[in-house]
Design a protein that fits this description.
single chain, 209 residues, alpha+beta, 2 domains, three-stranded antiparallel β-sheet, 7 helices, 7 strands
Length: 209
């Protein structure tokens, strides 16, 4: 029977990025999690470590057992997908670009590991349960700018429909560009109009095949 993670390893698992599963810890801790099959080392620089599906299940089981994983603070260094409309203006500097690229590569690796056929061009189960964050990450990774408090850009919002998000953009051209990006990332997107304002928006959902 596999021994459970140590207390130090559990702390590393609990502190994993809630969006990408990226881990932070000592080299020894991360290597031990890899040996247990709870983490993997990304093959591309900067060679970050991410939770495997087994590692995610371990984290979720601890949450369900009454040990909730704390929400990351704004200064905790945890990656958060920009959904648009955040109070602080979006940082488009080199460090943010690297973070977004790393998060997107980690998500592609998660697709490869969790989709039955190993396909990276189709959203995985995690994305279907984190629709807003997944769509926002796909947009930001492709270079789209999220809306800031006073800056135009995309906004991704939840909808009452299952497996669908609404994507708003400042103009028709930007909306079409967002649709093309999401479709290339494995989503299906169609334009709709708000009943009262007639404003155009995208209704996007992960493709299943």
């Amino acid at each position: 029977m596999t021994r459970p993670p140590t207390a130090a390893q559990r702390r590393v698992i609990d502190a994993a990025d809630p969006v990408t599963g990226r881990l932070r810890g000592t080299e020894a801790q991360l290597a031990a999690l890899v040996r247990r099959g709870l983490a993997f080392r990304h093959p591309r620089p900067p060679h970050d470590h991410f939770l495997t599906p087994a590692g995610r299940r371990t984290r979720e089981a601890r949450t369900e057992a009454g040990r909730p994983v704390p929400e990351p603070s704004a200064d905790a260094g945890v990656f958060t997908a920009r959904v648009g409309g955040e109070e602080a203006g979006p940082d488009a500097g080199p460090s943010r670009v690297r973070e977004v690229h790393s998060a997107w590569q980690g998500l592609l690796e998660l697709r490869r590991m969790t989709n039955p056929d190993g396909a990276t061009g189709r959203p995985c189960g995690w994305e279907r349960t984190h629709l807003v964050q997944a769509a926002a990450l796909a947009l930001e990774a492709a270079g789209h700018r999220p809306a800031g408090a006073d800056l135009p850009g995309y906004r991704v919002r939840a909808t009452p429909q299952p497996e669908a998000v609404a994507v708003h953009a400042p103009d028709a051209g930007a909306l079409r560009a967002c649709a093309a990006t999401l479709e290339a990332a494995g989503w299906q997107a169609g334009e709709h109009s708000e009943p009262r304002t007639r404003a155009r928006y995208l209704l996007a959902s992960p493709r299943r095949a």
